[in-house]
Amino acid sequence: MAVTDRDPGLVPSGDQTDGGLAHVTTMAPEKSQLRRIAEILIPPLVLGALIVSAWYFISYGVLDERKRFLLEPPHAVLMVGFLDWGNFSDILLALWSSTKVALIGLSISIVLGTTLATIMSQTKLMERAIFPYMVTLQAVPILALVPMISFWFGTGTNSRVIVCVIISLFPIIVNTLFGLQSADRGLHDLMTLHHANRFTRLRRLMFPAALPAMFAGLRISAGLAVIGAIVGDFFFGKGEAGIGQRILRFSADLRGEELLAAVIMSSVLGVTVFVGFGWIQTRATGKWHDPTGA
Fold it and tell me: CB count, 10 Å around CB of 97?
């Protein structure tokens, strides 16, 4: 028997068809959302599990018991370094000291770097005069400057802040200058046509165009400022103890659990600052800037 389009046994009713489409339409976004969450979470979780497994293997399979202090197993670090409030509070206090130094140094770098980049963007003469010295300062190893810094500014908090500024200044200058110089030439011509002065051109055209590049530099410099605060602790021991001094003390006392806990918290600080500036960038430019260039 031939099957026709009008066979009521094969053609679903209108209610059945609409209900099936609604079910598919409802399930598709849910599957898409679940898949997106899985793609975000599963890779780092798998890699983290592999790292922890390798960590356990080195602690128990490679190192003998007498040398296990070189890399204590994860559960020992958790118990001694994080769950023991006496040790963890000591690490948190030192971390807060380094955080303050990093934030002060980064703030100075932002003001100084943005000012220099703005001046350099206004005239090629100033760019040619300033930029070589900024490159030179970036190229000099910080270890070579430590004796001079300690000789001029002592071995306290001021010297740590200076180290943060030296390490974090260059990315802000380079990225801000690039952003200011990347404003559309046609819009510059339009500003010239309307007789806009330098301040108006900076405020309405150059700084808005420079925001993505500026925040890229800020995210880099934020991480470098944390590194500078910790490195400064290694060389300048007076004043409030930072996380770098705690790391040195734990290393000297062969306290492997606290040492690894301090290193982990230092990493958490760097990641937090980096993510924080990423969030600020999204709030500042997310409504109009497409990072993919689409």
Answer: 22
Strands (E), the chain: none
The structural architecture, per CATH, of the domain 74-285 is Orthogonal Bundle (1.10)
Give me the mean pLDDT over the 252-271 stretch.
Answer: 88
d(C-alpha 42, C-alpha 55), whole Å? 20
CA atoms within 13 A on the CB side of 154: 5
> Averaged over 164-186, what is the pLDDT?
86
**Cα separation of 89 and 261, whole Å?**
11
What is the spatial distance between Cα 139 and Cα 261, in angstroms, rounded to a whole number? Answer: 32
Q: Domain boundaries in the chain?
A: 11-71, 74-285
The pTM of the whole model exceeds 0.70: yes
Task: Give the DSSP per-residue string, 28-92.
Answer: HHHHHHHHHHHHHHHHHHHHHHHHHHHHHIIIIIIS-GGGGGGS--HHHHIIIIISSHHHHHHHH
> What residues have CB less than 8 Å from 172, skipping those under 6 apart?
109, 110, 113, 114, 117, 214, 217, 218, 221
